[in-house]
Structures are given as C-alpha cells and as structure tokens.
Amino acid sequence: MALTEYKRKRDFKKTGEPAAKPAPKKVKGASRFVIQKHAARRLHYDFRLEMEGVLKSWALPKGLPWKRGEKHLAVEVEDHPMEYADFEGVIPEGQYGGGTVMVWDRGTYYVYGEQPLKSLREGKLHLLLDGKKAKGEWTLVRIRGRDGEKNQWLILKTGDDAKPISSKLDDESAKTGRTMKEIADARDAEWQSGRAEDQSPTSQFKARIREAIKKKQKMNLLERHTRALEPRRRRVGCRLQSRARKAVVLQFRR
C-alpha cells in the first residue's frame, strides 16, 4: 500500500498533517508503535506499527481489548508516514479524517517469529507491546479481505490479562499529558479554508450551524450589555431632566 493512498486523500497545503519524509533507521529487533485517539466522525483509536519505513495502520472502533481471549474489530487503513507517529492536534473539518488527534500511547513492539512482513502477508501478527499504557501480548488476525479493498482484522488479547485503562488515563496524551479538549482548544495543527466548496455537504451544514450559534451568542451578549446599561441610562436621563428644569427656573427668576 506504501503511501500512495495516504497522499491521494490529503491536500498538504490545507492540513497540518505531516507529509512523508525519509524514514529514520530502525532499532534492530524492535520497531515503534503508536496508538492515536481520533475524534473524527466517530471516536476510534488508530493502531500503527512501524514497518517498511511507514506506519501500517488499523482503525480500532473500541480500542484495545484488555481481557485474555477478548477480541475487537480492527479495520486496515492506508499506510501513514513515520512523521505521523508524533502528530497530535486538530485536522480541520472538511479534510480527510477531520477531528482531534491525541497520541494516546507509544512505545516499541516485537513480533513473535521476528518476521513481521511475512506475518503481515500471512494475516497473523503476534505482537509484544511495550508502551506507556499498553504492555503485553496482542494478536492481529485477518478475517477477510480482497485485493484493493480494506481488510478486516481482529485484534485479540493474548497472553495474560491486562489492567484496563482508567477513564482519566484514557483521556491523557502519552506525548503531552493533555486531554482531548485541551488539544482541541489549542488547535495546534488546525487550518480553515473559509471556502464552502472545499467541504462536504455535512461539513457545510455543521459550519452553518456553528455560524448561527456564534451569531446568536453575539446577539445575546449585546442584549445583556444593553440591559446592564439601561439603569445607567435612566439615571443619566433623570439628571439631565433635573438640570434642564433648574435652568428653566433660573432663567424665569432672572
């Protein structure tokens, strides 16, 4: 798959995602893995393994299983460049995969049998993960797929049970310690075109909703400000009327 599909789906002039660069040298016997929490159309986790100078990638709708024998769906997606392993930020709406991305976990992995490419082609990767959150054995097994189509895999918890991640740790970046909200608010890698034609109909609709909400918020703020000024206006008006009456009285006396 290499990076052809990755590049085809993205316009790097419009998104802060990294483009491909020459891959760094790998550590013999072990390679990098990263799991990115991705709040796109649906919240999911992207599981990525360094292999052949790219990140082989799977989308995990339910994340990793933690109990021995438990299995979750893993959908194989396009390869990503190695630089993506460190990407944490916001992909703009209207761009492919738009949403907030967190580096949820990262570390090194080993493949039992020490032949990861052969295991990948055969459709079974028995992995040992050594990350900040994920430590232990998991196995990726291909269950169906055709050439040129996305392959459906399962990721199974093998070896011993692992302690499930707490809700607090689940919302904490392994890279920066930030929450998903903090990453979204920081908008480190956000780009906005401001052109509706660059967006899907769904994104255009969401953009109109956001604009309407902003407009309503501004109107509400203006209304509150006006109400807050009303007593002051009344006091000023009364003082002016009082001064005018005094001026009339003084003129009459003269």
What this model shows, in words?
The structure is a single chain. By secondary structure, the chain is of the alpha+beta class. Helix content is about 30%, strand content about 30%. It is built from five helices and nine strands, in the order H-E-E-E-E-E-E-H-E-E-E-H-H-H. The protein has an eight-stranded antiparallel β-barrel. Strand 2 (about 45-50) and strand 3 (about 55-60) form a beta hairpin. About 25% of the residues are buried. Residues about 20-25 and about 190-200 have low confidence and may be disordered.
Mean pLDDT: 80
Helix content: 25-40%
Largest sheet: 8 strands, antiparallel, barrel
Our count of domains comes out at: 2
Continuous helix count: 5
* General shape: elongated
Structural class: alpha+beta
| Proportion of residues in β-strands | 25-35%
Topology:
Layout: H1 4-8, E1 31-39, E2 43-51, E3 54-60, E4 71-81, E5 89-91, E6 99-111, H2 116-122, E7 124-131, E8 135-144, E9 152-158, H3 167-170, H4 180-186, H5 201-253
Features:
single chain; 254 residues; alpha+beta; 2 domains; eight-stranded antiparallel barrel; 5 helices; 30% helix; 30% strand
